[in-house]
Amino acid sequence: MSLRVCVYCASSNQVAPIYFEAVDQLAIHLVNHHVTVIYGGGGIGLMGRLADSVLSRGGRIIGIMPEFMRTVEWAHKGINEFRFVDDMHERKKAFLDGTDALIALPGGCGTLEELLEAITLKRLGLFTKPILIVNTNRFYDPLIAMLERCIDENFMAPVHRRMWTVIDHPSQAIEAIQQAPVWDVEAIKFATLT
C-alpha cells in the first residue's frame, strides 16, 4: 500500500522560481515512491503547480477544499479526486484523517497556521504522524528559531523537538518520513511543563 502524504503549500503565483522548483522536485520524489498526495485543491500558485506536476507524472492527488472556495473557482480542474467540505476547520481535520505524514513547503499565513496546528495536535497526542518542514531557501529559519526559543524558555520541553523534522531538499522527504521518531498518543502526559 502506498503512503498518503498531505502537502501544505501556498496559492500565490508571485513567489520566486526557487519555490516552484521545490514543488516540482517534491512531486517527482513522491510520485516515484507511489505516494498519494493530499493537498488544498487549489489550481494556482504552488498548489496548482503541485497538482500539475503530480498529474503530469502519472501520480495520484486528492484535493480538499471548502465549498466557498469552489464558488470563486479556485479549484484545480484536473485532479483525481476532490472532497468539498463545509469550512476551513473541517478541511484541516480532513487533511489529517488517514494521512501517513505531513509536508510543509513554504507558504503564507494559511500554511503556517496549518503547520502549527498540526504541531500542537501532535504535542497533545491527537496526531502522531511525521511532520516535515521543507526549508527551501532557508524560508523556515525564523519559525525554527522561534520554536527553539519556545524550548529554550521552557514553553515547550526538549522532547518536543522530536515532533517535526526539518529537511533542506524535497528529495529527502521519504527517508525523513521513514526515520521520523515514533510519537505516542500518550504525549499529552508530557505536553505541559510542570
Automatic annotation (TrEMBL):
MF terms from GO for this chain are: AMP nucleosidase activity
Q: Which UniProt keywords apply?
A: Cytokinin biosynthesis, Hydrolase
Can you state which reaction this protein catalyses? AMP + H2O = D-ribose 5-phosphate + adenine
Q: What class of enzyme is it?
A: hydrolase
Q: Which GO terms describe its cellular component?
A: cytosol
Looking at the keywords, is Hydrolase present? yes
EC number(s) recorded for this UniProt protein: 3.2.2.n1
Q: Does the keyword Hydrolase apply?
A: yes
One GO biological process term is: cytokinin biosynthetic process
Pfam families according to UniProt: Lysine_decarbox
UniProt xrefs under InterPro entries: LOG (IPR005269), LOG_fam (IPR031100)
The record's comment on protein family reads: Belongs to the LOG family.
**Designated name of the protein:** Cytokinin riboside 5'-monophosphate phosphoribohydrolase
